[in-house]
Amino acid sequence: MKEVLLERALAVLANAYAPYSNFCVAAALECADGSIFTGTNAENSSFGATLCAERSAFATALSEGKRRFVRILIIGGKGGEIRDFCPPCGICRQFMSEFCDKQFEIVLYDGKQFQTYLLEQLLPKGFSL
């Protein structure tokens, strides 16, 4: 399944809107029912209004009624060139914890190999109500 997610993320990476950082990111989110939703980052001149690729994919899935998620694959790099792993930022990690259990998989790809982490590894003390 990682390869399928990678194909889907690669297909939208060029759609990233990153005029300020030129750091393009794409994500492919797998739902429990096997459906896949993609997202890209969308920067804003008011940097706090920037939307990360991960949250973009989740927002699309949520708007389609999805609530159970298995894994997300994230790729990114300057100019859309994938040279290193692109882990999710802290806000995205916290956002994921709202909708995913601790065993949710976060898959990274550096252009050569995959690395997989569990959400609990990347956000060991996440905030929850």
Structure description:
This protein has 4 helices and 5 strands, in the order H-E-E-H-E-H-E-E-H. With 129 residues, it is an alpha+beta fold. It is globular and about 35 Å long. The relative contact order is 0.18.
Summarize the structure.
This protein starts with a helix and ends in a 7-residue tail after the last helix. Helix content is 28%, strand content 26%. It has 129 residues and is of the alpha+beta class.
Mean model confidence by pLDDT:
96
Percentage beta strand: 25-35%
Helix content: 25-40%
In N-to-C order, the SSE pattern is HEEHEHEEH
Which secondary structure elements does this structure contain, and how are they paired or packed?
Blueprint: H1 2-12, E1 23-31, E2 36-40, H2 53-63, E3 69-78, H3 90-99, E4 105-109, E5 114-118, H4 119-122
Write a concise keyword list for the protein shown above:
129 residues, alpha+beta, 5-stranded mixed sheet, 28% helix, globular
